[in-house]
Amino acid sequence: MSTLIGLQCHLCQAVFPAEATYVCSKCLGPLEPIYDYDLVKKMLTKDVIASRAKNLWRYRELLPITGEPQTGFHSGFTPLVRCTRLAERLGIRELYIKDDSVNHPTLSYKDRVVSVAATRAKEFGCRVLACASTGNLANSVSAHAARLGMECCVFIPDNLEAGKVLGSAIFGPTILAIAGNYDDVNRLCTQVADRYGWGFVNINLRSYYAEGAKTLAFEVAEQLGWRFPTHLVSPVAGGTLLPRIARGFREFKQIGLVDGELPHIHAAQAAGCAPVVNALNAGEDYPDPVKPDTIAKSIAIGNPADGYQVIQTVRATGGSGTAVGDDEIVDAIRVLAETEGIFTEPAGGTTLAGTIDLVRRGVIKPDDSAVVCITGNGYKTAEVVANKLNEPVRLSRAFKEFEAWQESRRALA
Ligand SMILES: Cc1ncc(COP(=O)(O)O)c(C=O)c1O
Ligand SMILES: [Zn+2]
Q1: Distance 10 CA to ligand 2 centre (A)
Q2: Average pLDDT over residues 189-201
Q3: Residue 262 has what DSSP assignment?
Q4: Is the CB of 305 under 6 A from ligand 1?
Q5: What pLDDT does residue 1 have?
Q6: Model-level pTM greater than 0.70?
Q7: What domains can be seen in the chain, in order of their start residue?
Q8: CA 108, 272, 192: angle at the middle one, nearest 5?
């Protein structure tokens, strides 16, 4: 029995059938799936969830598919890591990393959204799976398309890190590297989607894709023992993730799985691309587009598709914005690695550096609990730290040489 009712316009509330449409034909507002929540409440109990496999489909009654999941059988249910050393460094009591840097199969939060969009694309009978991407999404779309045996075409800016390009190429998609930034790529893809009817996960399948992001919030609440944290810090690029985290928490409260106050949700961006944080600070409802200039390429989106929703969500939950410089981002990548043994990319560095800023400003208080969303993996962007780390000590095979080195070290200590 499907719990999915249809798609509803976020602005004018008009309801449409659950098809491959993504804007309201009446007011051009974004469409989001709606469910029969009374039915969901009956079907999706804690016992039912606990009986299911540890992947994002354990919450399937709140995901917008009508048949069986087709992919993502190992995606989601990433670790929620209690961080004592990092918490001490920041000066707060209860800190967690939601570690999507180890999401299956392509090591970023995008494996959640693509699992759902690709399943829906199969339900719609799409022949080609496609996306406009800053890198991680292209990796995930390429992998899921390979597994589903679908044709795949990914569009990326032509200046991405080598690890991000390779992370798509290995799965054999067509990769179109466009001379321009993400916003140029996205504009081109909108035209292709309109004309060719390919399944662009983040354009014409966006309403379904975005729902996959809610599962991060579902997992956080479940992994905390069916409660909410006081704060959650999310990175923002196109603005898919942050509003859906809030929606996920709200839905769990609505169907009675979790009680208590909803978390404050904070938006972290790189100072070199902070349209949403600028708008929050200026009291604006819509972000003014910016030209990105930051090492955090995966979140370098100057004209975020869901910027309005991010701003609304941050305000409604009593959250704040934080924008951090590239040096702070690199420092935070190192701090996370050195205190907790987790290697993230600049998007994760941005989120942690933003959290540090929020603690410093007193927005997150020492006795509060906070979850930091680490959404991507550092092995894909090795170049941002490559020249900043200790070189290996080079020795011959002789034991004597080792001893001499050990002695010299002791002398220095
Ligand atoms: C690692 C990483 N984190 C966060 C984001 C932000 O995503 P959103 O577009 O949902 O704001 C992206 C993608 O764009 C990403 O690649
Ligand atoms: Zn509308």
Answers
A1: 7
A2: 94
A3: P
A4: no
A5: 73
A6: yes
A7: 80-106+212-388 (3.40.50.1100)
A8: 60
